[in-house]
Structure formats: structure tokens, C-alpha cells
Amino acid sequence: MAVKDGLRYTKDHEWIKVEGDAGTIGITDYAQEQLGEIVFVELPQVGKEFASHKEISVVESSKAAGDVYCPVAGKVTAVNSALESKPELVNEDCYGAGWICKLKVTDKKAADSLMDAKKYEEYLKTL
Amino acid sequence: MQGSTTSGAFVFESRAIEPGPSVLYEEHVKRTAKSHISAFAGYLMPLWYSSIAEEHRAVREKAGLFDCTHMGVLEVTEADAGAFLDLVTTNEVSSMKAGRARYGYILDAAGNVLDDIIVYRRGQSNFMVVVNAANEPKIKSYIRELIDGRAVVDTQDSAWAAKLPDLDVAVWDMRDPNRPQDRRVDLALQGPASIETLARLTNDPSALKRIADLKSFALVEEQLSGIDCLICRTGYTGSTVGFELFVDPEEAPRLWNLILDVGELLGVVPCGLGARDSLRIEAGLPLYGHELDGKFNISPFEAGYGWAVKLDKEFFIGNAAMKRIAATYSMEVARIEWPGTKGIRPIRQDDAVLNARGVCVGWVLSSAKVEEKQYSLAYVDRNTTREGTKLGVYYLARSLAQVQQGRKERVEKGTRLEADLTGAVSARFPKF
Q1: Does the pTM of the predicted model rise above 0.90?
Q2: Which residue of chain B comes nearest to A81, CA vs CA?
Q3: What are the helix (H) ranges across A36-85?
Q4: Mind listing the pLDDT tens digit for each residue in B343-360?
Q5: Complex ipTM value
Q6: For A97, which of A54, A93, B220, B384 could close a Cys bridge (C-beta 3.0–4.6 Å)?
């Protein structure tokens, strides 16, 4: 199960990459594997604000679906429209080309309280 | 419990088995990633090789090769083989000529569909019956019980039950590795380039002519590159040109590779279960458990196959129920086309189908994306199935958040809702 360094992780298997007040979010390798072949990603509206833990997206596979919760409060600045025609990018490259959306983060420090790669790896072992 | 209940229903408890390789497993591993291989009906089968969309397109434009070696292949022989199949299946079998095949159903005495099958007549007393992989253990058990006189044959009249065990008939598993000869497994080659591909596997012009001249649902026995093949013009993709090839399991890998080698320049590709499903849905063809039997106990009439149920046969198992259903059925399977643009949420099984006024008239049974459109097979009120009728779909809640936002997890008929997408009833059985 791939866990990427330099990202922060939530217990619900979202990742966030924070650079200044810009955050990029997606779901982890564990999440994409659990879901199976992804056929649809519901993208949030650009400009919409989300509180931490609020549902920001839904990722659907042929048999299941998983809610994606916003890891930290922020406003959506961009969405990955490549996922509209190639939802499988989330399976193929969940930390890279499979990113879901970008946020302007309200509190730059909020991500620090999330798990780092090592802690997330340990967390995965408990599941 | 196992066996027949007093109502005539045949109950069979499938044993969960560890999925195993098909005879072509080693070939699949060479051509696709192991992560694309999944358990299906007890076998490890590829979901796709390149992509579902590419394989689907190949079958429509060139040709595709499918591993159908997991399907059950039964041989029914001896003097009363035809009579036996006339009793046990819904279509007419004895009247078939050698070299012809027919689609039909095996029912239990209560009229439940146990499987949809194709019966191929090879000779006067020699038939081959191909059954769904998932149903093979059940059908073999059922046939054994019928021959032994243990299964209920007719809930009203025991005279037919008495006749069955007296018939001169034998049933064999043609895939049994212990069978001394004439073992057969199924490979399917489907699409416009099929004949040209097979032409490259024979030097015999008269054999090629017999293959090229095969009419739909006819069969011949020929050699392809020295391999004995039963070549049948049948298939499950809606292709007007397509063949099922029945060969010895030990020759199957060689034939598989030969077809893909000579077919490469013709655009022939291997196709997995994903494309198989999107192709058969696009063609309107039923999948047992979805458009037949399944949660709605769908009958052949509702599925659009009343013609394969010969109600004027003197008797067949389940005929009383079929007569009742033929006279009274009010729901049927419709094929619905939905427009597509990028980013539309895929429709799935159980989503509610709405009429033009937003009232639920049924539910989706199967759905697939084909290029930019979606096609669904849905179980709906008969009065909504005329070609061109506008219908809507309501997506059931897919995730917890959607449930919390008020989206329904199930919808009863008659409920009025707002459609998420609108489409229209399309031709029931298009040909490609």
C-alpha cells in the first residue's frame, strides 16, 4: 500500500498537499484499492467553501461509492476536470494525476494536526 | 435444502469455491496485469486487457476474442436425447436439423428460469448444450435429479414425471478432463473481421466456404490450423458476424494465440468481461440474474423472448406457469438510450426509471457506458416500452452523504420524483 511522503493524511483516507495557503486533495492508495475500478468522481464547484470534515466529493466505483471529506477548511480554487473523462486516473495515480481539487486553505496550520506519512502508515496497519 | 419443493421450485445451494484458473489463464497473465484479473463464477477471468472501451469498439469495428472456456458444455446423447431436451427446455429441439442451434430456457416445474441455454444439434442422437458458467453446477444437479426421477416434473400431472426416467438418454460433461475424447471448451470470436480471421487459419477453400456460408445459428465441424473445431455462428455480443469455437481444452491456448496472431493486422484483440458486458447490454441481450430470473424473477416473456417458449408443445417442464405468464405479464425489459456528455454520473442497477411525468415505472437491471452514451436494460411497465418513449432515471443514493442529503436508497413504483437524466426507449434488439 503506497503512502507518499510530504503529504498529510486523514483517517478517512484523504491526503492533502499544502504549499503556503494552497492545498491539493485526493484519496489515498488504500481508498482507491478498496473502491475498485473508479467510474465517476463528483467534482465540487469552484468558489464553494467547505468546512473541515464536510463532504466535498463522492468517488464511485461500479459497485460502491465513497464520500470524500474536506481535510481542512477552505475554498475550492480548481477542480481536476481530467477526471470527467478519465475517472480511472484516481486508480492509476491517486497522489498525482488523480488529484481531485485544489483549495485556498483558511488556516495554514490546520494541516499540521493531520497524520504525516509515517503515522498514516502505522494507522493502516491497525485496519 | 437441495432439490425440488412441493411447489415444483428447484432449490440448489451453490457451494462457495476458491476461484481457479481457466485453461487460458497463463495466456491472460501474459497479456494483462494481474490486477485486471478477477474472480467470476469460480474462475479467474480478465476484466480487460487494454481498456473496456477499446475492446468494445474493436468488436463493433474489427473483431474481439473472448475466453468462454468457463461456460458449461454438456453432451446429450442416445435415442431419446431430442425427446428429453423437448421436455426439459422451452424451445423445440426434436424438430431441429443436424447442424443447427436454438436458444431456449431450462425451467423448473414452478416456471422459474434455471438458465438460458443454446442447444446445438450435431447428429440424430447427439446434442451439445451450452450453459452459463455460474449455473453449471445447478443445471448438472437438476438434470441428474430429472433422470433419476427425483425432481418434480409437473405440479399437476405425474404422468410426465413417470416418462422421464424411462427415456434412453445420457448426459456428459464435455469439459471433463477425464473424458476420453471429444472434449470441448468455448472460445468466442465476434465482429466484422471474424470470417477473414478464420480464413487465415485454413488452407482448404471448401472448408473456408462452409465457414463463410454459415447462416446464423448454424454449425460445422472443420479444422483450423490442424485443430478440430466445432464452428457455430452464435454469440453474445449482437454482432451479425461472429462465431463460437468449441475445441479440446488442450488445444485452446494454441488456438487462442493463433487467432490473435493472424488477427493482429486485422485489428482483432482479446476482450475481457468488461467489454463482454457492455457489448451485450448495448445489444439488449439478457444476463441471467439480471434480465432473467434475479430479484424480479423475470420470465422469458418479460425478457422479450416469448418466441423461444413453445407453448404449443405437448408438454415441457414449467409450461403451465409459462402459459399463465404469457397471458398476464405486465412488466417487461426495455432498452433505454441515454445521451452523454462528459462527466455524467453512471447509471447503475436498481436506479429508478421514471415516465415523462416523473412517476417511477420500474428499475434499471443493467447499464453500460458506450462511447459517450449510456444504455440501460430496465424492468418497466409494458405500456412505457414503445420505441421513442421518453423516460427518466433517478439515481439512488450511492454514499452516506447522499442519504443524509435526502437522496433515496430505494424507490417504489408509483413514487413521483425529479429525473436526474432523460433518455428514450430504443430498439429492443439492435444488430451490429
Answers
A1: yes
A2: B343
A3: 82-85
A4: 899 999 999 999 999 999
A5: 0.89
A6: A93
